[in-house]
Design goal:
With about 290 residues, the protein is of the alpha/beta class. The protein has twelve helices and eleven strands. The longest helix has 18 residues. The radius of gyration is 19 Å and the shape is globular.
């Protein structure tokens, strides 16, 4: 049984491989990465490193050859780029005769109005069309995505948001990584969908939890989208990232991440890491 993780040198991918190495022999693990030199740490521990570039489909045939179970970690970029890259990867799994695909998707992918959802809907549809047994890991939102807001609070700024009362199921990347590792290496996950979400919280609730961790009051500044964009620009956020951040705030406000679920418990035998514990880990890592 040979398992493969794509994007294994990214933040989530690295955590997935590290988790797998605790229970799966290294010689049963392979990774597909664009730059193999970045995966030398895994290679030195007996993991097979293969070169695979989603923009060069011919490299994926050798990257996926002989693989039984594959985890497709969604790529970065705009929706059109990601849809093209993912469809290349899905077509290659079919050509290679892969027997199971797990894919990191987004909350409520098929119905979601979230601006990131078109990529995930198209990819889920492409995977279903192959007829290969699948599992869709619909990841809600990484707590680590709030690192810049947490840094701002540490520097004395309020928690700035235009997300209104929209709720988010934040969880640590480590929780999502452990769920992915469980599905990739386990049995009985064929043709399943897991909505992976922590406890749903508003911006006020996450700011309050951060206040508990820091032992101080964290004021919340609710603003409109244009003001939010101006504040982010003033905080030194690169121009190209600002529309992304504004869209996320809008989509949270409109409830696109409000998907309640106990699927972490189903897969891990425990709920997602409590929010205060997760925030505490992030505060330690950036301070």
């Amino acid at each position: 049984m040979k398992l493969l993780v794509t994007g294994a040198t990214g933040k989530l991918g690295t955590k997935v491989v590290e988790t797998l190495l605790k229970t799966v022999p290294a010689n049963q693990l392979a990774v597909s990465v664009r730059n193999p030199e970045k995966a030398e740490g895994f290679q030195s521990r007996g993991v097979e490193v293969r070169q695979g570039d989603f923009d060069r489909p011919e490299t994926l045939d050798s990257a996926f050859a002989g693989i039984d179970r594959l985890l497709l970690i969604s790529a970065d970029g705009d929706n059109d780029t990601r849809i093209r890259q993912h469809s290349n990867a899905v077509a290659a799994t079919e050509r290679a005769g892969v027997k199971f695909i797990a894919y990191t998707s987004i909350a409520n992918a098929m119905e979601s109005q979230n601006f990131l959802a078109p990529t995930h809907k198209a990819t889920e549809e492409a995977i279903i069309k192959t007829g290969i047994p699948y599992s869709f890991l619909r990841n809600n939102w990484y707590l680590e995505n709030e690192s810049s807001s947490i840094q701002g609070v540490l520097a004395g700024a309020p928690w700035v948001t235009s997300a209104g009362q929209g709720r988010v199921g934040w969880a640590l990347q480590q929780d999502y990584a452990e769920a992915a590792a469980t599905v990739l290496s386990g049995n009985g996950h064929e043709n399943t969908i897991y909505e992976l979400s922590g406890k749903l919280l508003t911006q006020e609730e996450i700011a309050s939890a951060l206040g508990t961790v820091l032992n101080k009051e964290v004021p919340v500044q609710q603003v409109d989208d244009a003001t939010y964009a101006d504040i982010m620009k003033g905080a030194g956020v690169p121009d190209f990232l600002i529309p992304f951040l504004v869209n996320i705030q809008k989509d949270i406000r409109e409830g696109t991440l409000e998907v309640e679920s106990n699927d972490f418990e189903k897969l891990l035998g425990r709920p997602a890491t409590p929010i205060t514990e997760g925030l505490s880990q992030i505060v330690k890592s950036i301070s």
